[in-house]
Amino acid sequence: MHIHAYEKIWLALSIVLILFLLGSVTYGAVGPGVAMVADSEAQIDANALDEDDRFAEPRVEQVGENEYEAYVVAYQFGFDPSPIVVPEDSTVTLQITSRDVIHGFEVAGTNANTMAVPGEVAEVTVEVGEPQEYGIVCNEYCGAGHHGMEGKLHVVTEEEFESEDGGDSE
Amino acid sequence: MSRTETAGAPTDDAGGDEEFDPVGTLALIAVYFAILVLAWVYIYYIEFLGRDLVVVG
Ligand SMILES: [Cu+2]
């Protein structure tokens, strides 16, 4: 079979392109550690969240040296807790579920974005930096009040976090 | 197609195939390739990885 020289060039280019795309995704996973939201969390009873250890009382909890876990419940039409308050320069694992219908959970303008499905727990781990206020939007149409459904994620300084934490528990 | 059409003139075919150089097509593919590479670099490395709160787990 005779293949024209030019044809060989663009066949090679297409292979280079495929390898470049695959290589980029591999680099993302190995270098910056980009991960996917998996279905690793066990299912829960969406109708009995008030009996659930994590979601009866949506909150932020310290689970390690500089590690925090946030238990978030999405509902028609909002997120609990709101705001989600975490200290700067920490690793935050968000566990998100819904108590009614499917919602979205997107920290606006960032890569933290998942679905909130009743009965399922979505786990998203992110590293937060400087103190900052993020907005959270629901990006799955969930009913008449969907357009107004929003939450807040506040990254605050260490001191502010300590004082707010004390204030909350009183 | 050219093979069947020029079956009666094999000498023409041998020469014609080598002289058929679609430089325009090659250039078009090169430009398209460059666009795809630049778009991917922008989408993945700059927009996606450059954003805040990269999901790491
Ligand atoms: Cu919603």
TrEMBL record, chain A:
- Entry coiled-coil feature ranges: none
Specify the Cytochrome oxidase subunit II copper A binding domain's residue ranges: 65-167
Q: Does the keyword Metal-binding apply?
A: yes
Which UniProt keyword terms apply here? Copper, Metal-binding
Gene3D superfamilies cross-referenced by the UniProt entry: Cupredoxins - blue copper proteins
Source superkingdom:
Archaea
An annotated Gene Ontology molecular function: metal ion binding
Kindly give the InterPro entries that the UniProt entry links to this protein: Ba3_CcO_II_C (IPR034214), CcO_II-like_C (IPR002429), Copper_CuA (IPR001505), Cupredoxin (IPR008972), NosZ/Cyto_c_oxidase_sub2 (IPR051403)
**Entry annotated with the keyword Amino-acid biosynthesis:** no
The listed locations are: Cell envelope
- Listed CDD domains: ba3_CcO_II_C
The protein's name in its UniProt record = Cytochrome c oxidase subunit II
Organism the protein comes from: Halorubrum rubrum
Q: What is the lineage of its organism?
A: Archaea, Methanobacteriati, Methanobacteriota, Stenosarchaea group, Halobacteria
UniProtKB/TrEMBL annotation, chain B:
Keywords linked to the UniProt accession: Membrane, Transmembrane, Transmembrane helix
State if Transmembrane is listed as a keyword: yes
**Transmembrane segment boundaries:** 26-45
The protein's name: Cytochrome oxidase
The record lists the organism as Halorubrum rubrum
